[in-house]
Amino acid sequence: MFEHGASGAGGHAGELDPAVERQRVLLGVRLFILSEVMLFGSFFAAYFVLRAEAPAWPPVAGLARPELPLVGFNTLLLISSSFTMQWAVTRIGRGDVARFRRGLLATLVLGAVFLGIQAWEFAHNGFGIADGVFGSTFYALTGFHGAHVLGGLLLMAVVANRARLGLVSREHHTAVEGVSLYWHFVDVVWVTLFLTVYVL
Amino acid sequence: MERWRRPGLARAVLGGVVGFAVGVLLLLGAGQLGAELKPGHLLALGYIGLVLGWLAGLGAFRFWLAWALGRPADRADEAAAHGRAGDWTRYFRFTTDHKVIGLQYLVTFIALFLLAGSLAMVMRLELAQPGQLFDRDTYNTIMSTHGTLMIFVALNAIVGGLGNYFVPLMIGARDMAFPRVNALSYWLVPPALLLILANPLLGGYDTGWTGYPPLSEQANLGEEAFLLAFITLGVSSIISAVNFLVTVSRLRTAGMSPMRLPIFVWSLAVTTAIVLIATSVVASALTMVLFDRLLGTAFFRPSQGGDPILYQHLFWFYSHPAVYVMAVPAFGAILEVVPVFARKPLFAYRLAVLSFLGIGLLSFMVWAHHMFVSGMAEFFHIPIMITTELISVPTGIVFFSAIGTIWLGRIRFATPMLWVFGFLWSFLIGGITGVYLADVPTDLALTDTYFVVAHFHYTIVGGMIFGLFAGIYYWFPKFTGRLMDERLGRLHFWWFTLAFNAAFLPMFWLGIQGMRRRVADYPAELGAVNLWVSIAAFMIGLSMLVFLYNAIRSWARGPVAAANPWRARTLEWQVSSPPPVENFEHPPVVESGPYEYGAPVSAPAIQPSPATGH
């Protein structure tokens, strides 16, 4: 209890203790992720309700669900990007900036390839967002997820830029940890999405 | 020229206009390439551009942008953004001081309260006599706008206003955990309000604040204004909730253990937890309506496999907990005022905290009581009825906490305390009539009648607005440094309370007679009672002029307030009125609970001198 108070509150009366700031930022990120869980939860809820009410899935004859192999490969890409991200976090925790930057870059590339394959799939699916509840739920879920991947990539680009300028170190890498939490969350959402929307 | 380049309101307006134009032009370009365009598309993308341009113009992104680009932090600019004491321009800038943001919220939403109240009087003008004064679409738009704006007021006035101002002070902190996020959450509000107020120009909307499909999917362009404004305020609430929760869990000063937190802080912690969890659900439901309207999706279109009842589930999964987002901060403000004016420790403090947590938890299990007539699954009726009635247990404990504190206290009947008594009376009626709406058989008869209108006005005005006024009269000396006029305060209380009861008690009877809500006309034999209700409603409006006069005059020329005019023990009263920009020169050390009235301890906290350090 005392250390909270002793740290004072508010960053205007001088520099804030990095450990205190780290706790605050990471708690903030976790809470924000909780609200994101509820966002995806609502779209998943809509998906399950509408699918349960449909006579068949896809309900309209002539529509086919996307082929699994390509998406499966894409899923592997995203899962491995979580590992490279976590590897980067442990590297910077030990002060190994060079390996950290390599790990971050690998994550960025894997995420970008994932997004590219998603875009290719969107363009080659035989159905659109206006094709009944099947198209609506498919594109709303994968589209929102894709937007979150894009957001994660932008954040990583910012972190990479700061690392390039020598601003990320063993003592100052809260942003890296925050981005990695967010990235793992985006990854977990994808695995759920893959299992329910593509496989099930 | 300089004015347009510096971050500020002028550049924000310019940025908003440019952003809107960019959004519209982008779409028109896409239209040239063959995309099919509806006015809703232009409005939506133009509005997103407007919000971004507005925020960029205010300078909301400048610190984050500098950080992202790896530039060194501009300490002088950061200090300027925090603001100096006595500088009035900080209320019109992207200021990061929580006290400034609190007053921005409070004044904005009081103004909105008056505006939405005037709309209610226009409605009562139409309803004063059977027959039509103006056409039904106009009435529906006024009704919908009144409802939506009042919901915004009820959600934000206490949390954003009093919460932002007093939570950091009450826990001994210098500011919120993320001051820039805090400022961002406020400055998202003006564009949303502008949009919703512009809805009559866009053809209005007739769905009320609930926006049920299929009606909301067929309504005018005004519906898009409603959806976009609601989603914007949702985003603002979510980031503000993160900020509150981190502040309360990480920024408490030394000795401020959880069981020493003022009850108002506890109420806000529970409230913002509800906001954090529930708000994205309504945002997604509204987004689905928007997609159905703009992108041709089929979420709520039965003809293509969609399900309108799904919307009601998602909507009420947020909107019933939202009732507690309105009520719980008011409970907190009421319980904060009671010990000060009864000169007794808060009765059953721990149980009251536990009740808040219980309300927060149960609030997620009751949403479907709004849907007994919707045709949802039959087996769901009884469990929802039981959980709904269960929530009266923790709510009852909050009541007992207030009454137990008053019991055998040395009561000062000052204005804030009068609002406490008004709250106890009104919320009691609101709570008891709620039982009839929670019971399935009676609800089937009473649903969508004026009984419901009377019930929720007794809970939300009787709960939230009475709590808001108790809080405003109590804390006014602290945030203005001036005392309010007691006589005018009492006049406002009695006038408002009597008029409020005169207007809404007869509505229970009207509802039982079968008068339908949200309809511009009614059977002729109900005319006399409706005329009475309309006159009483105008009386409520007039009583607000007394408040307005009192608040403005006292703020400008009232007697100067001492640091602690009510002799309260919470930390915000231990600093000057109004508090210094940094709140506390040195973090205070808390040595006893906030309500130990009558205990031999003389001061609740010590401010350590610099020599002893901290």
Structural summary, described in words:
The complex is a heterodimer of chains A (200) and B (614). With 200 residues, chain A is mostly helical. Chain A has a single domain (16-199), classed as Up-down Bundle (Four Helix Bundle (Hemerythrin (Met), subunit A)). Chain A has helices at residues 2-6, 18-53, 68-93, 97-124, 132-164, 174-199. Chain B is mostly helical and 614 residues long. Chain B has 2 domains: 1-72, no CATH class; 90-588, Up-down Bundle (Cytochrome C Oxidase, Chain A), CATH 1.20.210. Helix content of chain B is 66%, strand content 1%. Chain B has helices at 2-5, 9-32, 39-58, 62-68, 75-82, 98-127, 136-170, 179-187, 189-197, 215-218, 222-250, 263-294, 308-342, 349-362, 381-390, 392-406, 415-438, 440-446, 450-480, 486-512, 527-557, and strands spanning 589-590, 605-606. Chain B has a two-stranded antiparallel ribbon. Chain B is globular, with a radius of gyration of 24 Å. Chain B starts with a helix and ends in an 8-residue tail after the last strand. The chains are: A mainly alpha (200), B mainly alpha (614).
CATH class of the largest domain in chain B: Mainly Alpha
Could you tell me the mean pLDDT of chain A? 91
Distance between the termini of chain B: 48 Å
Given helix and strand content, the structural type of chain B is: mainly alpha
Report Rg of chain A. Answer: 20 Å
Structural class of chain A: mainly alpha
Major sheet strand order of chain B: 1-2
Tally the beta strands of chain B.
Answer: 2
Order of helices and strands of chain A: HHHHHH
What is the CATH superfamily classification of chain A?
Cytochrome c oxidase, subunit III, four-helix bundle
For this entry, what is the oligomeric state of its chains? Answer: heterodimer
Span from first to last CA of chain A?
48 Å
